[in-house]
Amino acid sequence: MKSNLQSTLRRLALATVFGLAAAAPLAGLVSPAQAEDIRIAHVYDKTGPLEAYAKQSHIGLMMGLEYATGGTMEVNGRKLVVIEKDTQTKPDIAKAVLAEAYGDDNADIAVGPVASGVALAMLPVAEEYEKLLIVEPAVADSITGEAWNRYIFRTGRNSSQDAIANAVALGKEGVTIATLAQDYAFGRDGVAAFKEALGPTGAKLAFEEYVPTDTQDFTASAQRIFDAMKDQPGRKFLFVIWAGANNPIGKIKAMEPERFGIEIATGGNILAAMAAYKALPGMEGATYYYYDIPKNPVNDWLVAEHRKRHESPPDFFTAGGMTAGIAIVEAIRKAGSTETEALITAMQGMEFQTPKGKMVFRPEDHQALQSMYHFKIKVDPNVAWGIPELVRELTIEDMNIPIRNKK
Asked: In this entry, which stretches build a coiled coil (predicted)?
């Protein structure tokens, strides 16, 4: 009886050993490569009204990863894998595809989107999954303000950076300004920040006009602006804050605002949109990026490689995408890991070089502090757009960007 029991136990032990041995190859099929790859999800507005911006952002992201890794597309011996997710510029879809990227695709980090309203919908998803979202290029202040959480970093500029730079360019004693902006987070946050930034300059914001993002007929809006501004004394500007299609500058210029002494002003934009600037020689404003302004090795590489590959200079959002790619690589190297907490620690206060020169992630709200550029439009008949010539670089030290995060 004792012999039978010992024999049975030996058979069970052997079965267990063989079972584990048989299971081992199956466990190996849970791809070690997947565990080792660094998975980056680009969750962006690939289709929809901001499609042109999104395309630039993706090209820039891939070039940034390439540049920062010296062409290897590896960090610390681990391969970079980029997963694309299309938000369709819809907040609900954005939430779902970001959750899919974190949950199903095991993304270590996500980047995107373009639209501010879409970005605001995505922020709680990053917090829920406790994974990083690098916001690029959505601009609304609330992203690193009241809606922010600790898993959010932004390489793109925010509305306050736009506003302060443009206030420096336009604001002076005796100047009166009206604004025209899109009626959503980007436009309203932009005007609020611009109004605040104008305060110390002595200029007055006299009128605000908001219109739907798909507006094509600006006649009624222009008339309200003209009526509000025509009797104002001194120098008068209509400052336009606009993203995407249907930019109103050309249409409003055709209505001859100069009849009322009103000058059109706006910030920088993509090259295609700046074709309308050719009708506005001498116009001043401030821009996030124009390929011929920054002088540094990163931008030199970007301009040369983009011309070689695409037969055109890099655009506004190409530089932003590249910045996000560089930031990801630098953060992983510094952290020595893709663990979220290690990355957060590494990125808070992290200084890194970009096509715009130095950027620094501010520890309090993870906003990238960066230079902006005061410009004046020059017209060259051989160039298809109005050229923003540099008047003055506004450095990190020149701009006191408010911390709007209350957390």
From this structure: none
